[in-house]
Amino acid sequence: MKRKVIVAVGAHPDDIEFGCPVTLLNFKEKGYEIHYIIATNGENGFKVKSLSSKERIDIRKKEQLTAAGKVGVKEIHFLGYKDGFLDYNDNLREKLTLLFKELKPEIVFSFDPANMEFDNINLNHRDHRNIALAVFDAVFAAKNDFIYPDKNGKHRIEKLYFFGTHKPNYEYDITDKLNFKLDVLSSFKSQFPNFENFAKFFKENIGRDSAKYKYAEVFRVVDIVQISY
Ligand SMILES: [Zn+2]
Fold it and tell me: Rg for the chain (alpha carbons), in Å?
C-alpha cells in the first residue's frame, strides 16, 4: 500500500491544535501518516515571568508532544526559531522545502497566507503571517528540481488546507468531537492556567466559525492542479 502522508505546519506549539486536530485525527483514522512542523519554540507566549528561556522552551516542547500524541502524530519536526521573530526568508523556505521533499505529503495544512484582514491581533500574528507565506512558497519549491536541489528529488503536493482563513470553502463538522479538541488543547497547560474558563470561551466564541454546524474546523482548500502543455 502506498504511504499516504499529511504535514501540518504551525508557527508555535498550539497553532495546529487551534486549527485542525479533529480533521487530522480523521485523516489519521483513514490511514494517513501525520507529521507536524513547528517553526518557533513558543518561548515568548507565557504569562509567568519567573521561568528562564530554556525552561519555557522545554515546557512548550513537552506540551506539543503531549498534544500530538493524542492525535497519533508520527513525528514533530521542531525548527527552533525564536518566538515572535519569525522572518520569511530563504532559510525558512529551504527548511520547509527540504522537509516536504523528504516526507512527500499529499496534503499540507497551515495558516491561510491570503488572510490579511488584520482584524485579529492573535490570528494575524507576525509569525503566523510569515509561516503561511513560507509554506505556500515551499510547496512550489518542492515540485522544482533546481530551487533547492536535494537527494530526495522533487515532490508535488496535491492539496493545501488553510486554517485561520477568512474565505472558507470546506467545513469539517467537529460537533461530536468537541471534547476531543478541548482535550488536545488542554495539553498546553502553560497557555491556559484556568482551562475551564478557556473551554467556556472556546465553546462560545472560537469554535463557532461555521454557519452549517454547531462546531467545525473550517478551511480554504486549494487543489494544486498539475498543468501540462
Ligand atoms: Zn501561534
Answer: 17
With a CB cutoff of 8 Å and minimum separation 6, the contacts of 131 are: 9, 10, 11, 39, 86, 92, 110, 111
- The amino acid at residue 165 is T
Using the predicted structure, report yes or no on whether residue 40 has a pLDDT greater than 90: yes
Mutual angle of helices 90-103 and 126-142, in 10-degree steps? 50
The CATH code belonging to domain 5-223 is: 3.40.50.10320
pLDDT value at 137 more than 80: yes
Centroid of ligand 1 to alpha carbon of 15 (angstroms): 5
- Cα–ligand 1 centroid distance for 123 (angstroms): 7
Rounded CA-CA distance 75/59 in Å is 18
pLDDT at residue number 47? 83
Number of Cβ within a 10 Å radius of residue 141: 20
Grade residue 125 by pLDDT with cuts at 50, 70 and 90. Answer: very high
Q: What is the pLDDT of residue 89?
A: 98
Residues 6+ away with beta carbon under 8 Å from 19 = 8, 10, 109, 111, 163, 164, 217
Rounded to the nearest angstrom, the distance between the alpha carbon of 152 and the centre of ligand 1 is 30
Asked whether the beta carbons of 157 and 224 are under 8 A apart, the reply is: yes
The C-alpha cell that represents 150 in the structure block: 536535494
User: Three cell numbers at 205?
Assistant: 466564541
Spell out the domain ranges in the chain.
Answer: 5-223
How far does residue 128's CA lie from ligand 1's centre (Å)? 6
